[in-house]
Amino acid sequence: MFGWLIRRVAASVFTLVAVTLAGFGIVRLMPGDPAEAYLRASHHSASLEAAAALRTEMGLDQPLAGQYLRWLSAALQGDFGTSFTSKQAIAEEIASYFPNTLQLALSSFVTAMVLGLTLGTVSFLHQGRTLDRAGKLFASFGAAIPGFLLGYVLLYLFSYRLNWFPMLGKGSAAHDVLPSLTLSAIYIGSLSRLFRASLLEQADQPYVRYARIRGVFGARLFAGHLLKPAILPMVTAAGLCLGSMLSGSIIVENVFAWPGIGKYFVAAVANRDYPVIQMCVLLFAAVYAGIGLIVDLLYCGLNPVIRWDEGGKKDEA
Amino acid sequence: MKLKAKYAIAICLLLSLLAIIATGCKSGNPNATTASGEQNSTPAPVSEEGALQTLKISWNKDIGNLNPHMYVPNQFFAQAMVYEGLVNYGEGGKIEPSLAESWNISEDGKRITFHLRHGVTFSDGSPFTAANVKRNFDAVLMNKKEHGWLELINQIDGAEAKDDYTFVLRLKHPYYPALQELTIIRPLRFLGDAGFPQDNNTAKGILKPIGTGPWVLSAYTKDQQAVFTRNERYWGDKPKLQKVIVKIIPDSESRVLAFQKGDLDMIYGTGLISLDEFAGLKASGRYSTSVSKPTATRVLVINTAGPITKDLKVRQALEQALDKKAISEHVFGGVERPAESLISDNFPNSGSGLAPYAYNMSKSSEGLEQAGWMKKAGSDYRTKDGKELTLELKYISADSVQKSLAEVVQGEFKKAGVNIKLMGLEEQSFWDDAFAGKFDLVIDETWGAPYDPHSYVSAMRSADHSSSSYAAQQGLPMKQQLDQQIGQIMISTDEQQRAALYKNVFATLQEQAVYIPISYEANIAVLQNKVNGFAFPPTQYELPLAGLEVAR
């Protein structure tokens, strides 16, 4: 198990390095030049001389391999560079945006899990009946409605019309409610359907039938025999859901004027702010890798049947 | 009964399980549950702000770090609230006194002496003197390359403080737009001494935003909001407002909702809300709305070196084939009026008086036929030697106004038998192509006050990446003479001679049909009825705060 963990972490590090290399390459393949993008955003003209000087200052006149290695070695020493656009330290900027994203992601994640699992359970218990069908409709609706539209509808109804929640921005806990609902909507539906299917699958297992024969019913059956195995596939889904919430949502951030990392990243792409793009790509990759690792560990904790063989692979016994 | 109990217990179990997960998650993140920031957790809009004259507005980007000598991410309006220049751009481009009460220009045009206003203090109480003016000029001149886009910077030979209230600017050559360029919001405005870093190099950052302007930044949360309070030491007419709160709201629909809810008192600027949204607010009749005089011109630039558009007859025919009135109504809801000239005549030296090309389909068709582009019965588009009359129109795909404009232009030109191939490009790629002359037509705009017309025209001469003009004009047989005339304009000291030269330049560009002026851009304003005293400022980038009042 310990050997597996070490191998697993090493693989994650390798993935991260590969991602930084890919990110570095892709931003440089985009048309447009950061120096000119900065100058043009600043004033009406980008003189060729100023652009050349700025490219030198940004280190863009160096050979690509050198640029990458310099960036990588600085990043490894904790120096993530300075934004081309704002001229502020990127680490500081991310430290100001990422906690906001984290706050929104966590409240959305909890909302998605609570509502998703509840709906899934209700659908399971009412399989084939009205509530199940309503759940299915809700799931399709949640998956189909574009985030910005739902955001506007919620803002219009609950803030503008009913005045239950504040309008925009970040502040009190009440500010979190509408953006969290918007961001979680798409996941609530899919999580509920997944959980329902998983419960149904377990309900059909021989050990559950045997438990029924033994006279185990109701809550005891649900909690003792169904819940734990059914929740296992949910761990992976939850991991993916949290990962995508943590990489910021430009749409929800825009609609609710939420100062998160999604907007920061998209603005950096538009401005060709290479160091910021590279850092965000690295951060998002690290978030996914970290969550993947946690999901694997949770699997191991939740289901002792899954063990690790000597080759380091997960294997069902 | 049995089923109900089963259901209830299952739900309870599930919820308690999730509650555990939830508290586990939340404990790492105390901000999620505790209130922070200035907003009220109860949504009722009434607060202690009601007692002060407070105006709540919004902007789509963070205001930046309020460095008077730097550019993005600093926003013009915020810099203009805190910092002032020696002179101001007044109505119709008139140069007005600001921190300089008066000035003289030497006969050779190479020396400008400014007599500074007495009794002006910075917001920290320190006096504004010629020594401070020199310190600011020196800081800007330390980074000549960064600021070289502004021709004045390249023309400065020296700056000196003659005495406490006399400042002299020496130029290498006479340069008539010197005063115009001193009105620009950045980089030549003045930071108080206490704001300077030790090495004076403000390009690397300032210590504190201290200016002489009517407003002081009093609270700031990056990307959320900025609060400005009135500068009680301000030398000029103090604003009636005491506080201005700027909320950062990137999305236009959300901005409109916040305004309708009463969270905002004013929407002002260009591009903050769509013209449809503006029309909706206007039609509701519940707010006061207004549209400014032209601030800049939206143009379709024709490449005079393009394989088809190098033919003058084709370009002139294109000028006559656009129904600008219909475009103004359909694309801009009447907010942007149809444009007749490259520079609107509310600008100085706009070359007004030239007869515009009138919308005339039969003349346009005649012109295209003379150029050899014939329309066969049954086909939509004209051909010449078996080749179809197809032109590429490039625009910025993320700009929704440009996109709908491009589509309407395509439809209009189709009526004339011209096939327009639309190419929406991502912004940086668009400019790459525009500067390299890789287009038949592009959508562009002039630069607005105080840059129009001198900076916009001056940039036509330069291969620097400033506007699509340089590339577009490469096919003009008289390009060299045109550039010489523009050069003369910049150094002429005689106003009449300068006006005549401007007229010549604009006449040539018009006759050569390089630009199709489409519409005049304008600032829009939407105000709650409780806000009074509104008037549009003379430049595009400042907020109209001077006379505003909020009724209690």
Task: Supply database-style keywords.
heterodimer, A: 317 residues, mainly alpha, MetI-like fold, 2 domains, two-stranded antiparallel sheet, 13 helices, 75% helix, flat, B: 552 residues, alpha+beta, D-Maltodextrin-Binding Protein, domain 2, Dipeptide-binding Protein, domain 3, 3 domains, six-stranded mixed beta sheet, four-stranded mixed beta sheet, 17 helices, 20% strand
Characterization of this structure:
- The complex is a heterodimer of chains A (317) and B (552).
- Chain A has 317 residues and is mainly alpha-helical.
- Chain A is 75% helix and 2% strand.
- Chain A has a two-stranded antiparallel ribbon with strand order 1-2.
- In chain A, strand 1 and strand 2 (314-316) form a beta hairpin.
- The longest helix of chain A has 36 residues, at 90-125.
- The model of chain A has no long low-confidence stretch (mean pLDDT 86).
- Chain B contains 17 helices and 23 strands.
- In chain B, the strands form 7 sheets. A 6-stranded mixed sheet of chain B has the order 14-20-13-19-17-18. A 4-stranded mixed sheet of chain B has the order 1-10-9-8, with no helix packed on it.
- The longest helix of chain B is centred in the N-terminal third of the chain and has 26 residues, at 2-27.
- Residues 12-49 of chain B have low confidence and may be disordered.
- The chains are: A mainly alpha (317), B alpha+beta (552).
